[in-house]
Structure formats: structure tokens, C-alpha cells
Amino acid sequence: MKGNSTLIIVTTTALLFSPNINFGQAPDLGTAANFVLFSTVGAIGNTGISQITGSVGTNSGAISGFGNVNGVMHNADAVTIQAVTDLQAAYAQLNATATTALHAPVLGNGETLYAGVYSMAAAASVVSVLNLDAQGDPNAVFIFKTGGALTTAASASVNLVNGALACNVFWKAEGAISMATFTMMKGTLISNGGAIDMGDGGTIEGRALAITGAVDVYGTLAYIPLGCGRPILTGPSAPTLNTTACFALFSSNGVVSNSGITHVTGDIGTNQDSTTGYNPLFVTGSLRPVPDLATAQCAIDLENVYSYLYALPYDIEMLYPALFGNKLVLTPHTYRMNAAAVFTDTLYLDAEDNTDAVFVFQVIGALSTGTYSKVKLINGTQAKNVYWMVDGAVTINDFSVFCGTIVCHNGAISLNTGVTLNGRALTTAGIVNTMAITANNSFGGFCVVLPIKLLSFTGACDMQNVVLKWSAATETNNSYFAVEKSDEGTNWRAIGTVEGAGNSSRLHAYVFTDRLPGKAISYYRLRQTDFRGNYEYGEVVTVKSCEDKATESILFYPNPSDGKFTVLFRGDRNNVTSIEIFNSIGGKVCESIGFKSKFDLSANAPGIYIMRMHLHSKTISRSFEMGKR
After folding, report:
1. How far is CA 597 from CA 154, 266, 319, 464, 590, in A?
2. Deepest in the core among 56, 193, 321, 427, taking most CB within 10 A?
3. Domain assignment present for 313
């Protein structure tokens, strides 16, 4: 034992001072790399709700207990036959890899290991924490070979540090592999002549592959690791939306109605009936009460979108549509459900950091959700890249959060109380009914043709003000522009108007100054109104805070005040050349030469006021409030 310990110390020291040496050769898994759970001969089983990303299969045995998985189930087919050959080749390659360090039978207990091939003569175990340090080399390979079974203690954790990747970690056991509850394992596990099981609540970023023996998981999160040449998932090509991109709520043939206070970003309309119950004040987009040219074109485009989504070949079939959701994690693919789907709890859509990745769900039947169900977008997934094709009615129940474009074919859409829809709800035939919801199609644009041709719309800081500029090449019946502002990009308020040129074919330049910009980011947009009162919205611009950080050195006491207040300035008062105070509409109400600390503005109306303190090198602005007297 002493000799072995000395060898471990010497080898570890050599590794520590040789960070660029890669001692192990990663085996070629071939088609077995596509499996997260696999046995050449043995059953594959699950207990409880497990989240599985990767194919599941056996070449000889039963598969049981799984709900929906993010992969393909293979049982004794051409794919599993090839995987058997590839797995046995990978095992032989691992077995032949030269050992670089002998290790005691216990790994972990807070130790850190570097790239290499570690051998244990008999059975081995992982306890507590084992750190695998790549020393900045993403190609660093870690191989662990045991002469017997491999086990982990409860809550054991394999941590990857300094660039280590799970796809470069391999565990080969000559016997069973058993992982206790809440184990966090990293790497590909290959058992020769034994079963593999993972206790309840465990996580494996890698694979569990048995040459002979069953593979069982219990409430496990298991997923194939990224990197090492694994293709980046993009999903299918997105459909061409054309005018359907404009609408948040639409029916080609049916009433679109609302009850309660509903907020919508995007157009609302129907091509065969009426649109009722929506308050224009809460609609950012075009509210189309009756069919028009836009709804006629949308009906044509929607049919094309549906046909495209329906014809897409699917990658993965969800075998249990009635058990959809339940904390399932899915990656970019086309998914098929060949019956009505019932969505409960939470669905995670993981783009794996590819923000352009597309998800398509084909539901051959109705789609309904439980209350408080949620679609959560993680690792770069965007709602604009998620599509739900449903052959039947759609019911999104109370207080659910749903993401993506719903394309319903010959079915009604019900968005019930408190629903948040980040996307669109469109049907080729059927009513659309909403009840006090929020629908946000801001990523789709408003797709409107303004009666003006805007050449530009920009915003920039000028001192502590925001100056908005825009220009129009042509204008038709243009009455005025309303400048609207938002602090978070959703709730808008008008802050001023600029008169339009009416009818003109000449270039006109416009400017508007916001003297009370936000302290963080301010959002601005133009609402153009014609002489008949019709209006449309243009694009949104954002402007970061124009506030000079030095304003933190000016304090007002008290604030709010009754008009009498004291100014506290932490800077050099001798640098102050003058002080000006303006009301909220830009009128100057007070001016002093040099620094002045005490002010009495009680003769002025309550409201927000702006102080400008002019120094030799700059001007500092700060707002304060005078309350009711």
C-alpha cells in the first residue's frame, strides 16, 4: 500500500507540473454515443419521473417504466445491433489504454485529479467530492478503470473544473456500477458483465452503457454531454410566417372575443367574423374589428404555415401525450404526439446556447394544459423559435405561462384567466376567446404600412437629456407624431407630440427632447396619427441612462419638500459657476450665480423639477420633487 501511495504522489506531482500533457486517448463510441442508456443484453427500466435526453435502447431485453423522453426508444433493431458492435470496440479500446497512475480504491473526499488513466486493481468507490481539473485544456481526457464493481456514496459529486468536459471522462468497470441517491456523476460509464443503476434524485451528464446487464434509473436527470464533436442542435427550419407574424390573436373563420382586462402586443383580428371586447388602450398593435385586406392575406398565409408544419418529418415521438410536461426537458427537434396532449406542470425547452435553434411540436389532436402550467425557455431558447401545430382545440388554462406560436387547425382556442402568452394564438377555423390575459408578440413586429416613409428614428443623450430624431421621405395625411416612452418596454405613456407635414413628398426632419429620461434604460416609439384619427406604431429605440454618475454627489433635503429645501454638494463649491432650476415642461423658475445651498420655491406649483448645476468642466443634472402644500 505504501508503494502504491508513493506512486500516486509522484504521478500527481508530474501531472501538476505538466499541464499540457494529455495522457489518455478518448475511445470512439461510434453510434453508442447517441445513447444515454443502453445495454447489449439486459432490460432498461425506470422508476418515478426521470428526465432523459438521448436515445434509450437495448439489443436484447425489455424497456419499461419510462414516460416521455427526449430521444428515440430502440429495442432490438438495426440501430441497437450497430451500437453493440461500437460499444464493444470502445470497451476494448479503454481496456487497452496504458495506465498512468495507480489509485487507491476510494476516489474523492475532496481530492483533485488531473488528466490521465487511473487504475484500481479491484472494486472502487467515489465518495464526497472528486474534482477533475483540465488545467485549461478542453481536450484533457480522464479515464478510470476498475478491476471490479464501481459504486458511489449518497450525494457523491464529480466536479469538472478549469475546462474539463464530461464528454472526455470515461469510467470502465469489470462488474456492476451502482450510484447511490443524489449522486452527481460526470462521464460515460461502461460496465462489463454487470448491471448499472442510479439511485433516486441522481444526475448523470454522460451515458450509462452496459455490455451485459440491466440499466435502471430512479427519478434521474440523465443527458448526453455537449462538446467533443457532438453536433450543435438547430432543430428544423422555421416556417415563413409572412403576415401571420403581425398577429398575436387571429382566426381565419371565427369570432375573436375577450372578457376582462387583456393586454396585447401585436395585431388582433378575424377574417370571417368580428373582433370584440378588446380595449384599444391596452392593445399595442392594430385592432381590426372587422375583416380587411390584412386579415384576408393572413388567412392565406396561415394555411401555408400550417401545411409546412404538418409536413415536417419528426425526429422524436412523444409516446405518452397524455403525460406531457411533468418537468420534461427538451432540446431543438421536431416532436410528434399522435393523440391529444395534456400538458401539466412545467416543460423546459433547452436551446443549448444556440439562440437560433427551432422547436416544433406536432399534436395530432387537442392540446390542453393544467392550471399554473409553464413553458420555460432556458439556455438561449427564444419564444419566436417555438411552434405548436395542433389538429384540434387548444385550451390554455388559468394562470399558465405559454411560449411560442400556436397554429391551430380547425379548432377553437381558449386562453383562460391570467394566462401569459409569449407568442401567438392563430387558428384556421374556430373562435379565439381570451379572459384577462397578457399576450406578447413584440418579437414579431407590427408589420404595418405607415402612411409615411420613415428613413430613420434614433435616440441619443445630449447632456442629461435624450434627444430623439427622425426623418420622413414622404407623408400622406400625416396629422402628428406622438412620442411614447416606457421604462421596461411593455407599459407605454405619451410624453409629447410633434406636428406632421400633412401631405408631402419632401424630406422632413423632426426632433423631440425628453428632459426627464430614466435612470437606467428608456424605450421610445412613435405613434403616427392621420387626419381621420387612425394610428400606427413604428419601431422601438432604446437609450441608456444619460444621468451623469456625479449626480450622486448632489442631495436635496428634504425631498420631497414644500418648496423650501437645502442642497448638499460633496464636490468643490468653488467650481460651481451657476445653478438653474426648471419645471417639468422646461420653464426656468430659478437661477443663481455661483453655489447656493438654500432655496425657496414655495411660490411654484407642486411637481417634478430639475436642477442643473454648472461647473467649469461639466453640467450635472438632478431631479427633485415638491409636494402639495
Report:
1. 67, 51, 75, 22, 13
2. 427
3. yes
The amino acid present at 167, given as its one-letter code, is C
Comparing C-alpha atoms, which of 100, 140, 133 is closest to residue 11?
100
The answer to whether position 589 is within a domain reads yes
Taking the alpha carbons of 135, 139, 145, 149 in that order, is the dihedral positive or negative? positive
**C-alpha span between 613 and 576 (Å, rounded):** 7
Give the pLDDT band of residue 450 (cuts 50, 70, 90): very low
Please state the φ and ψ torsions of residue 148, each to the nearest 5 degrees: -150, -150
Q: What 3-state DSSP class applies to 339? A: coil
As a 3-state breakdown, the chain gives helix, strand, coil percent values, each rounded to 5, of: 15, 45, 40
Within a domain: 362 = yes
Set of cell numbers at residue 433: 376567446
- CA–CA separation, 229 and 91 (whole Å): 20
Domain check: are 216 and 133 in the same one?
Answer: yes
pLDDT tens digits for range 563-596 = 898 888 877 788 889 999 998 888 899 999 998 9
Residue of 4, 14, 238 lying closest to 105 (CA atoms): 4
Same domain, yes or no: 17 and 129: yes
pLDDT at 518 over 80: no
Q: Are residues 133 and 28 in the same domain?
A: yes
Kindly give the residue spans of alpha helices, DSSP state H, lying in 192-261: none
As for how many domains the chain has, the answer is 4
270 and 184 share one domain: no
Of the candidates 515, 543, 571, which is a domain's last residue? 543
Task: Give, in order, the Cα–Cα distances in Å from 616 to each of 348, 571, 578, 613, 621.
Answer: 56, 12, 10, 10, 14
Rounded CA separation 34/74 (Å):
11
Helix ranges (H only) for 199-255 are none
154 and 122 fall within a common domain? yes
Does the reported pTM lie above 0.70?
Answer: no
Report the alpha-carbon distance of residue 78 to residue 442 in Å, rounded: 47
Residue 54 has pLDDT above 60, yes or no: yes
Residue type, 157: S
Whether 204 and 84 share a structural domain: yes
Nearest to 195 by CA among 178, 207, 180: 178
Q: Last residue of a domain, which of 484, 508, 543? A: 543
Look up the domain containing 49 and give its range.
2-223
